[in-house]
Structure formats: C-alpha cells, structure tokens
Amino acid sequence: MTDLNDAALLRYSRHILLPEIDIEGQQRLAASRVLVIGAGGLGSPVALYLASAGVGHITLADDDVVELSNLQRQVVHDMASLGLNKAESARARMLALNPDIAVRALGERLSADRLLAEARQHDLLLDCSDNFATRHAVNRASVAAGVPLVSGAAVRLAGQLAVFDPRVAGSPCYHCLFAEEGEVSDGPCATFGVLSPLVGVIGSLQAVEAVKLLAGRQAVLGRLTLYDALSGDFRQMKFTRDPACPVCAAA
Amino acid sequence: MKLNMVYFARLKDSFGTGQESLETDATSVAELLVELRLRGGNWATELGHGKTFRVACNQELAGPDSALRDGDEVAIFPPVTGG
User: Fold this and answer.
1) Is residue A177 within 8 angstroms of chain B, CB to CB?
2) A237: which of A140, A241, B6, B56 fits an S-S bond (Cβ 3.0–4.6 Å)?
C-alpha cells in the first residue's frame, strides 16, 4: 500500500477525515488504476474529480479534438485547448491540479481488442462515451476482463447512471439492461443539444461511485438512476441479470 | 383499472408529456404496449418493434408478460447514450 507523505496527508485531509474513506481508503485510491472512455461532457468532471481525489493512475481515451462548441459543458478543457486532442488536453489540466498522479492520454478510439487489453490493466472502467455502440463495447470489455464499470449517459435534459460489477456473481451487465439490437435514435450531443450542467451532474455521480468503489466500498448493483433536469426528479429502477444475456450469462 | 404512466428522456419529448393517468383494460405489459401503439403517430413509432426501450412496473424492470394491477406506476424509458 502506498504511504502518504506530509503534503499528501494535507491535500487529502478532507477525505481522511471521513470514516468511510480514512487513510486506508486514500491509500487504496493512490494505488488504483482507472480507465476513462471519453474526455467530453461526462469525462470532464470525472477526470477532474478523480485527479483531485488522488486516484493514482488514470488512463483517458478519446480520439476527438476540442472545439469551441465543446466549451459550453466540457469543463476540463479551455480556450488554450482548442484544436488539441481531448485526452491530451484533459491530461494537462489534471496534472496541473494534482502532479502526484500519473495520467496516460490515449488519443484513439479503442478497438475491441485494445479495449479488452486496456481493461485488463485497470481496476475500474468509466463509460463517458457518447454512443450506444461504444457503450456495448465497453460493457463487453468489462465482463470479459472482470473489471467493474460505472456507466453514465446524458443528452438534452435527461441523464442515466448505473454501476456494474462482473466480480459479483449473478449481477447484471449493461446488455441485461439495454439490448444492443434495435434502434436507439438518441445520438450524440452534437445533434440534440445538452444542458451544460447536466453532464456535470451525471459525471459527478459517476465520480462519486468510482471513488467509493476504489476506496473499497461495494456499490449498489442492478439499479438504474434516471435524472430529469427539467423536473428535477431522480428516479431509480431495479433490474436483474437477463438469464439469456449473450454477454454475461455465459461468462 | 387505472395506471400511473411515466415517460422519460426522448419519449417524454416525443409524447409531449412526462406522465399521465391511464384508464385501461390491459392486464400485461405487452397488452399495454399494444394499446399505446394504437394511439398512432409518435406512440406507434417510438414503441414500435425494433425500437430500444424498457418498461418498469413500480420501479422494477418488467418483461412483456409482467402483470399489471390497478394503481401501478408504469415507466417507459429509452437508453440515454450521449455524453
């Protein structure tokens, strides 16, 4: 377990004061390896909070470039990031916030093979992507590698959040919740618009679940949180493993 | 019997309402969906076969055969995929 020096004890003192985290939880965070898929609207708060919380090893994957229309909500980037790869831009900001962590930037869209290989090198996956196909690819990697997944999604005024942990026998995966077949017609923010702080709400909830898991607490599984920014309502739906799920039932 | 219907995300926009009280004779989720599709327009399109959405009865995911009872809250939601 990583020892925390005096500066680290001061930096993380407000975590250490929490009995739910304490020094042991903070040491676990420092030793943790996290893979974040997407450094856009959801990936921004996730990257900032995981860095400031002291997650020791963070890999960010995004093949996109920062544009002016991203800055309305992708708060990890700024005017100086325009034209830069999103993973690289986020990496610079995270290290400015906390130079004691290691951040890898992958400026690529990971193929299924690369995704699985990377998943196996990490303790936790965070899906901050913007499309259904990637969400299913990340889920397959999570199940195949036996690595937990914190999934967040947001567009227009609606958000969703769920945690999956294939290490827990009989627990459901993303495919049990939403089958891959069929038409989704709920494209990226580019087409439909998105309320700026909505991605902050959902991304921050992802970061909360990630920090709890990494600090050693078991997440609540089989629960989908739905957030409606217009009404301000949070709702939670319970779901179970699909016995015929092609992804996790055979795993 | 009466059901408390709730619609989320894209369906809320598409149906033009987030909730309604529905008087129905449908006894299962499948029967309820048939009835809603018969409204035509966006109801038929959004709830048509090949569209991805889930139904939850009293905050628990329900399959087509799930039984419905008077006063149930029935939620219909699509996957949100953006980010």
Assistant:
1) yes
2) B56
